[in-house]
Amino acid sequence: MDHFKGKQFQKDVIIVAVGYYLRYNLSHREVQEILYDRGIHVCNTTIYRWVQEYGKILYQIWKKKNRQSFYSWKMDETYIKIKGKWHYLYRAIDAEGLTLDIWLRKKRDTQAAYSFLKRLQRQFGEPKVLVTDKAPSIGSAFKKLQKNGLFTKTAHRTVKYLNNLIEQDHRSIKRRHKLYQSLRTASTTIKGMETIRGIYKKSRKEGTLFGFSVCTEIRILLEIPA
Questions:
Q1: CA 195/CA 192 separation, integer angstroms
Q2: How far is CA 208 from the centre of its chain?
Q3: pLDDT in tens, 7-50
Q4: Which of the listed residues 30, 133, 179, 220 has the most CB atoms within 10 Å of its CB?
């Protein structure tokens, strides 16, 4: 599929703009300045629209390909402020620290935790161990899932030190202090950021981090010939 059909700018320009924004702690205007220094004149609102469009596409492709996980999962939620109100970003990683999936919700309750765990189960099957904090909503969601025949062979552990890995993993997304104006745009942007971060972590684990290029990884994901 040609994801760049009908675009005014060349695909390489779009890939650089989207890649730099999703990978580094840059604003749309800062990416605009980087492109301007290279003789490319792009409005910051155009870059914003590209991030919204391609952040979603990259996430969907990555999610389809991301089907393997280690035997142990770590799940937690962190706070994201959108238009002055706190929302909750559910995140899950495996024992190797590789990102499984994320989900941004308005509420931190049993239904949100239940839906996220069920979503993970559909994608990866069931782990031997699920490590979470002691949030009552997650405990209730896990019991509800088991009652419905899911995660029946999974041990649920709530020992705090076991969950340190994912709490530290939140830092990369928390560093992006963006002023999100809607749940939809925040969700799409965060999906793009988490996709690139997930690819980065996998490259580091496989020992291919030297020479990591966000633009190259996006081209590979979109199956664009070099």
A1: 5
A2: 20
A3: 889 999 999 999 999 999 999 999 999 999 999 999 999 999 99
A4: 133
